[in-house]
Amino acid sequence: MTDSLSGPEPEPRKSSHGTDGTSGPGSAGNGGSAGTPAEPAGALADGMAAAARRAGFSPAADGEPISGHALLAAMGGIRGLVEAVLPGLVFLVTYTLTRELIPSLIAPVIIGVIFFVLRLARKQTVTQALGGLVGIGLSAVLALFTGRAEDYYLPGFWTNGVYGAALLVSALIGWPLLGVAVGFLMGEQLAWRSDPSKRRVLTILTFMWAGLFILRLAVQLPLYYSGNVEWLGATKLLMGIPLYAPLLVVSWLMVRSVYAATAAAERPVL
Q: Which stretches within the chain are classed as H helix?
């Protein structure tokens, strides 16, 4: 799994909020059209809603039942999981068996190229495969430049550090990034900030996601500095999807619960 909040990027999903998961053009502003001052706000809304979709929150916004199928789809499907896990697994296995750096770096690069070419040949979305290939290439270049196998994992540390710090700071200052993203995905923009229940839940979730990234660093950095490539690679895999998936389910349940409770409270009594 990629070391980011998004995880494997799911294919675009249609929802009741529109094909892009928002409430339509100009949803962040006042319904302005192209060329009006509302356009930057609309772009922000689309960007934040897209971030929430990449994090896997579309099923919660669409009211889709919590199920294995929904969870798998949110993580990019079988192909998305394979593309996220296989390159790192191949690097770890190859290096463990051969103790040779160059073959261990070539193998995941080849796999990344194959994934990209397959998606291109089938005229499918290549964003995830291209991003994965760039990440693999950067990791390989760093390890090749230093001659240290453990440096293959450096980009993951940078990503975890940036995401963890950004989420933690945003929650501490009262603007939890997860809340901003989910608010735009739900089509209410920043209205959740005036609802104490939503604000509390979305702040807690932002702390939880920040904790995931920080925990990864706390466990993996000592292994990196000790040069323990085998355990570093293993913990990276174990702290990827196996931690991401249950946290995503908990997030779905909390978001869906607080939005359902608010909707019920606002429903007029006949």
A: 38-54, 58-62, 68-74, 77-98, 101-121, 127-146, 154-172, 177-185, 196-226, 229-238, 241-266
